[in-house]
Amino acid sequence: MYIGPAFVILIVVIIYPIINMIYQSFFTSIADKNIFVGLQNYRLALNDELFWIALKNNLKLFLCVPVMTILSLLIAAVLYNKIWGWQVYRSLIFIPYILAIPVVGIVFSYILQYNGVINTLLKGIGLEKMTADWLGNPVLAFPSIAMVIIWKQLGFGVILFLARMMSIEKSLYESAEVDGATWFQKFIWITIPQTKSIIEFYVIITLIEMLSWVFNFIYVMTSGGPGNKTTVLEYLIYKKSFGGGDFNIAMAISVMLLLLAGILVILHQIVLRKED
Amino acid sequence: MGRIKKYFSMLLVLLAMFSLIGCATGSDKGKTKDGKYSLTVWYWGEQEVPGYKAYMEEMVKRYEKEHQDVKVEAVLQESDNLYTAFRTAEAAGEGPDIQYLWGGTQALEDVWKGNVAPISDYLTDEDLSIIDKASLMETNWDGKQWGIPAYGFTYGIAYDKDAMRTAGVDPEKPFETWDEFMDCCQKIKASGISPLGMGLKDGYLPAWIGIFLGQQNLDSVNDIIDLMNGKTSFTDKKNSEWLYKIQELLDAGYINDDILSLDFYQGQQLIESGKAAMTLHTQAYAVSLEKSKGADKIGFAKAPVYGNGKLANSIASPSQVYVIPKSAKHKEAAADFLLFLQEEDNIKCLYEMANVIMPNVNFKEEWLTSEIDKQVMQWKKEDINFCYQLYFAPMFESEGLIPTVQKMFSEDLSPEDAAMELDSSLQKGIEQNPEVHEAFMKWDVTE
User: Fold this and answer.
1) Cβ separation of B261 and A135 shorter than 8 Å?
2) Which pTM does this prediction carry?
3) Residues B155-314+388-441, CATH architecture
4) ipTM greater than 0.95, yes or no?
5) DSSP state of A214
6) Do B403 and A246 touch (CB under 8 A)?
7) CB-based contacts of A61: which residues, under 8 Å, 6+ apart?
């Protein structure tokens, strides 16, 4: 009875829309008619080159996860040693995480423009050869977005790992020091094993984010361009449904994205249970 | 047990309250607190027609004065949300009473998807007789009228007359043919600024380039309908020569170097900041610049002619339209408001406040105050009116034209390969939307 209201909300807000989306992905709508087409929407989506470009881009974003994890761990470990001004650094690193994505996207769009801040600075210090159209170049556009995502999300990992490190038994470090362990050895043999469960949690959560949470960055910074080079699955769903009005194909792609995210969620649950 | 009963009854009470609230909203939908009917208008236009927002607010004021029982809620939409918000609302059956859409297939696509009610069910032939026939044809399909013009406007090349003078080009007649245009660009480039200012990031530009150059080898509307239906191909140079013209501009370095970093409107603003000499614009925007900077500062030219089709010399003077969504609660009232916008005083107000001409037989040429408008009116009398973009097949722009032209700039995609990509995007559109394509095939455009 206690969970009744929450359960009702869960059904209305999450379960019903998901079931409806799966159901509608087997139909095509034209005017007032809803025609059953079986797996046709899935076939059309899978035959669309854009689907594979988008999926590949999502998978490429997975490469951000090890980068973010390692950087977050290192920064957290440095802050854990309570270097001078560590609380200020901690706040500074966390600030990007609390900024709204559209704000970050727009600001970086200006910074990364061909005649934007970065290129102006590079020209100013005589590095004109290093200037590039960071968001307009098909090779650089996606890595540029990935860098912005890493910059924005890094703070979450740092705070998470730092919180866990704070609760590690001090005696472990003290005995290692007695044995003459270096900072790096303590990091490898004490910090990482002790934060393992949090690292696993962070990795899986971040993988899910890279799959189904990067729409805003793409929408604001590149609109999927140039030439579809930065399209991801979420953006493709948006483009198909609200841009092209192909709601049913978009629903088929959504179901496939849901399945991929579902696999990661199951993996997450397995890891959590293993830890328990 | 007693506690369970208590919570269960609380839940029932809550559910009953929600139902009552639901009923109340349902029965009073569209009525304001003071008992007036609420007419919702989702519109756009300020971005290409400065002053349109102020005009719409004036129209709302005038209409409410005449109709004390109506409260008009006019909501200005962002470019990115114009279609998405409408389609989402329509999918939920919660659309506005009046929706603004871009003309031609950009409006008819939503007709074919079942999002729009025929306006001719609510307006008589006599009501519609005051509107320019060519303008009505843009949204006439299957024997019914689906859209009514919000305003008409003309595409052209806005240019900085001072930049022309500095470059040694006659600012009153800078170019007519493609060769003259290239010569003009070369002189401007030599004078130290970018000849053309454009932004390609958000994807609106490719269709604009098509409007200026795409139709020049075509002889009739049916040529482009055949192309969009896959009966002819972009690999035929007749249909793709304009892609080679883009390549020429690119190779010569006549376009701003940050085109891929800028959104469409940012690219247009380069002319205002003095970083470019020319940009693709609407006559309405050029007139607003003319008014703020002076007639000796801003000029407006037709697209340079390179083609040899009957439409080579045409001008693009289409209409943006208002439609009545299928889910609109007050369709008759919506039609009445749309007809009100066509009244003589109101079309005059539209011109005075937003510099655009309503394609309405009651529009008086003597109202024109701007030199650019007078020039445009002259073009309209002399040339065929044809807008390439109005006949794009569904999905062609988003899935084909935008990425293809972006690739020409970002990946050096050749015009030949671009033509093939455009063909395959059309095929993909047909495969993914056979029903919409069928509706498109049924579109009979009277020439």
Assistant:
1) yes
2) 0.87
3) 3-Layer(aba) Sandwich (3.40)
4) no
5) -
6) no
7) A146, A149, A210, A211, A214, A232
